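Notes from the 1:1 (GR / supervisor)

We went over the backlog. Supervisor wanted to see one worked example end to end before approving the batch request, so GR pasted a single chain during the call. The sequence is below; no edits were made to it. Supervisor asked that the structure be written out right there so they could see what the output format looks like.
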Amino acid sequence: MEMFFWNESSSNPNLIEFLQNQSNNNNVILLSGPPSSGKTSLIFQFAFNVAFHSSNSNVFFICNRHTLDSKPPFLSQGVDPSSDIFHRIQMKYVNDDQDIRNFFAAFHLFDVLPAALFIDDFGHFFDNKSCQQRYSNPRGRELAMVKTLALCHDAISYANQKGSCKLVLSDTLTHHGDSLRFQFIYNKWVHTTFTIKEGDVCGTFILKERNSNTSKVKAAKYSISLQYLALDEIVEDQIE
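Structure output shown during the call:
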């Protein structure tokens, strides 16, 4: 949970333990939430934190350039916009699901593997009509997502044989009317899911962690205001 927000302590034990953990239980993470709930800002802060704590490694932030330019991420309060840490976040711009598969298909060719990869608005890259035509199947979109997630999972597993590497996805598909289909797909490949719900006050949100390996629930309350991402509090052992 702490990885989505800025913490000035460079020796935060929770962050360090997370980065060093090579268990398959937390190497693929999904951040699921409705539109305009700060998902891009949250995973970009996640990328910044990984780069901050992994001084010898870079991270990749994979996104659509037009989308990012039109809605750039907000920084957390306390983060210096001129920090050298941003130089270790490599932006990779892609246009569709084929671009993502091409990137991960060549993943093993990296001389130095990244500490983490982030794909913003993952489901956006799977155009329903294009996928249906490509696979000659009315469920072409789901087939393309399964194929891509399988390739991403294999790449991350390969990276964790040599070190520690995380994959973090954000998406809105699990909040649409046909959300159950996409939840089923993600459950196959994603180990930990964080969900966002709107808070009681306008502009506030609640981020919850769902992990099948534990009965504990952790939640964070945050807000997006004045072009900043602000953490209000993190509550542990919250009962849903």
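Supervisor's comment: Residues 177 and 183 are 12 Å apart (CA to CA).
Batch request approved.
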